[in-house]
Design goal:
single chain; alpha+beta; Immunoglobulin-like; ten-stranded antiparallel β-sheet; disordered N terminus
Length: 164
């Protein structure tokens, strides 16, 4: 997979958005234990999605309208999240830490957080790692196994290239 294909998929704009407002996602394929989907509401941006045994639903994808990558996570027990409110968060990817900001949101009534990024290094760091832990001011929010994520993201790049 070429790095240029990823950069082309992200384009150049950067603005906040809510990548999970799609009415309907279109199934494209599977890879590494993740579903690969197309979101028509985001300019046919491709994404990977998996629901983990701890009940967390995670999406990692491309918003072609805003030129950003995103990671969203949802869980029924995250009831204190306020739609549109910004939250300081941090990630641990096999011992490497990242800081960021998440926007509170809901998917079919389930609370979640939307983290936008325009740095391709972050995407590939996720794909190359085994475990991601997300923290907020209160402590650990979720831990997920990233096994298969590289295969899934490579599939999402192929999906994105097919979208034109």
């Amino acid at each position: 997979m070429e790095f240029k294909r990823f950069v082309a998929a992200l384009s150049v704009a950067s603005a906040l958005c809510a990548p999970v407002q799609a009415q309907e996602l279109v199934f494209w394929g599977e890879g590494g234990g993740w579903d690969i989907l197309v979101d028509p509401s985001l300019g046919n941006g491709c994404l990977i999605q998996a629901e983990f045994t701890n009940g967390v639903l995670v999406r990692i994808g491309f918003d072609r309208l805003e030129g950003m990558g995103y990671l969203t996570a949802f869980h029924e027990n995250w009831g204190d999240i306020v739609e549109g409110e910004m939250y300081d968060i941090s990630f641990d990817l096999d011992g490497q830490s990242y800081d960021g900001v998440a926007k509170g949101m809901y998917l079919d009534g389930v609370p979640g957080a939307d983290i936008l990024f325009d740095n391709s290094d972050f995407l590939w760091d996720i794909a190359a790692r085994q475990t991601m832990t997300l923290y907020n001011d209160s402590g650990e929010v979720m831990v997920i196994d990233l096994t298969g994520t590289m295969v899934a993201l490579e599939g999402a790049i192929d999906c994105q290239n097919e979208q034109g």
